[in-house]
Design brief:
This protein is mainly alpha-helical and 139 residues long. The protein is 55% helix and 0% strand.
Length: 139
C-alpha cells in the first residue's frame, strides 16, 4: 500500500491531528482520498448497505481523519452516502468534541459550502416532526 501513488488527506489545517509515518494500515487506508472517493461513488450501486457498513470503523475509531477526508474528495456520485455520513459526523463537532474548533475551522477553510449546508440542515425542521429542529438541544 505504501508503494502505490495516492492522494492523502491534507492535515495541514489541523496541527494536533497527525498521521505518523508508522500509522496502522487501517489508518493509512482511511487517510487515502482515492479510496474514500471510490467507496462513496460505488455506494450508488446495489451495495450501498455493505459500503455504508465499511464506514463504521472510521466513524468510531478515527472520525477526525474521516471527516477531513470526506470534505476533501470530489466524487461524481454518492450524495446519499455523503449526506448520511455528514449527518452522523458533524454533530460530534457541534457538541463538545476535543477537536471541535480545530476541525470546524479546517472544514470551513476546505469546504465552505459543506459547512453552510450543514448549518442549514441542522437548523431546519426534522422531516419527521416539523415542530422540532434537527440540532441537538445541548448544542
Amino acid at each position: 500500500f505504501n508503494e502505490v501513488s495516492k492522494r492523502l488527506i491534507n492535515l495541514e489545517l489541523t496541527p494536533t491531528i497527525k498521521l505518523e509515518a508508522q500509522a496502522s494500515q487501517i489508518l493509512q487506508f482511511w487517510s487515502c482520498l482515492d479510496i474514500i472517493e471510490l467507496l462513496v461513488e460505488l455506494s450508488e450501486s446495489d451495495h450501498f448497505i455493505q459500503i455504508r457498513q465499511l464506514f463504521e470503523y472510521p466513524i468510531s475509531k478515527c472520525p477526525n481523519v474521516l471527516i477531513m477526508g470526506l470534505c476533501q474528495i470530489k466524487p461524481k456520485t454518492g450524495g446519499p452516502l455523503l449526506d448520511e455520513l455528514y449527518s452522523q459526523l458533524l454533530p460530534l463537532y457541534v457538541l463538545n468534541h476535543a477537536n471541535s474548533i480545530e476541525i470546524l475551522e479546517a472544514l470551513w477553510k476546505l469546504n465552505q459550502n459543506l459547512m453552510i449546508e450543514a448549518c442549514l440542515l441542522y437548523t431546519s425542521p426534522s422531516p419527521r416532526d416539523r415542530q422540532k429542529s434537527r440540532m441537538p438541544s445541548s448544542a
